[in-house]
Amino acid sequence: MIGHSLSVIAVDYARHTKPFINDKSSLNRHCYLVRLQIKGKCRVSIRGKEYDLGPGDMVFSIPNQGYVLDIGGVDQPIDSADYYLICDGPWIKQWWEESSLPDVANIELDEGLLFIWRKLIMEKRNVHENNSEMLETLLKLFFLSLGRLLKDSKAISPRSRTYISYQIKTYIERHATKPLTLPHIAAHHNVSVSTASQLFKQSFGQTIMSYVLEVRLSIATQRIMIGGMKLEDIAEYAGFQSYPYFCRTFRTRYGVSPSQFRGHDPYNRS
Asked: How many whole angstroms separate alpha carbon 129 and alpha carbon 206?
């Protein structure tokens, strides 16, 4: 890693309940800025062009581009929240140039990206340790994850039927350990049960509930290999409502019972 090839100038979460105008033109003269609106509305000006933003809208501003944030309201209460990141470095410049970014893009509010963002905030606030390498690594991970997110959002239009399938898939992966039913999943994505089932089957070649079981079994096998938990507790941890059902499903999928799988663990971590 090239020392000091990336630099975090400022990174934080901001919430505004009163009118606010911030002209970062002077700071932005030498830095790159990324800002994600997660709640409420605001207006930004970039190179003299104005954009009205809502949740999911992300701003990209390069050095010497000019950036003004305006959060205001006359007829309605103000409640605006966002994450922002101001950074610099040769690696950032190269990533930015290769990504061909617009001034504003709407993205899915991805929990993975927000987790990295929050980790960057915590590390930036940590002034008692020499954590420059940690910050550089997190910053690079942030932009690589953001690049993948932007690529996926371009490949799948939010208006397409395929987009709904991928939304359902992501939702299952995030909530597989919780009680899930087909009607609940369909309602969450504002489609009928038949539409959700049909779209998912067309995109991934399997039913929604079979994928729920697949994710839960993957979680269970990983937990078994780690060790330290009873099989009954692992079944509950992975989202199975019944231990006997977990055992039957596990045997059907892997050809052995959970206890046999644990006994064959080459690392003997039971």
From this structure: 49
